[in-house]
Amino acid sequence: MILFLQFIITFWRSALNSVFTATCNYSPLLFELSLPLLYFCRIMLQMRIDILTVLPEMLESPLNCSIVKRAQDKGLVEIVVHNLRDYSLRKHRKVDDYPFGGEAGMVMQIEPVDRAISDLKSQRDYDEVIFTSPDGEQFNQHVANDLSMLHNIIILCGHYKGVDYRIREHLVTREISIGDYVLTGGEIPAIIIADSVVRLIPGAIGDEQSALSDSFQDDLLAPPDYTRPADYKGWKVPDILLSGNFAKIDEWKHEVSLERTRRLRPDLLK
Known about the structure:
- With about 270 residues, this protein is α/β, with parallel strands linked by helices.
- The protein is built from 11 helices and 10 strands.
- The protein has helices spanning about 1-25, 30-35, 35-45, 55-60, 65-75, 110-120, 140-150, 165-170, 185-200, 210, 245-265; strands at about 45-55, 75-85, 95, 105-110, 130-140, 150-155, 160-165, 175, 230, 235.
- Residues about 1-10 have low confidence and may be disordered.
- About 40% of the residues lie in helices and about 15% in strands.
- The strands form 3 sheets. Strands 2-1-6-5-8 form a 5-stranded parallel β-sheet, sandwiched between helices.
- Helix 7 crosses helix 9.
């Protein structure tokens, strides 16, 4: 009976995922309307993020604070960090070696990565195996929305000069970049991906509307926020926000979002 229920829930989630990924990038409203169903499904199928790294200590603090920690405490997501050195069979648990061709630098070997991914896949199914790479798909809010719909994902953090290219050819299903620059390793991109995805999980933050109104959800920058006092040193909050006319307030927010996007990020309107 349990297996049957799991099958039904998995089938429903897969169907919803197909519909969502096809339309959510164009309709934040669909994301909002699906939240109750997503919340039910999330209770039944907790999200799990496994991160493979040679520097697990680099991930400890960011993944154990604020919204990400609360989401884990609520049982909405499980984030497990794995030390790739634990899967090395070499002396001193080394996971890198010199590159063929005589170039400078060291390259992450395929064997420990393959052993780690195979071990995880023997325990559960994974929707994506993501490699953080400067030449991967550009990470943005739409990609975060997409990933938040998945059940289990693996994030492989690159390090050294790079990874044996056979890892990318045979073990990875998706490559993601957080920008056109190079970092020491993939740990910071993994933190960014995990943080942006977890906050989208229904129940992770107190008010889902807060996540839905973030910048980039509808390809617009968010309007400015204000709080008390309404007048500080003569710097006043716009009168419209104090009017209580929520239809006019929403109209003002949209207009300001458009103006800010045109001025600061015109590329988003193309």
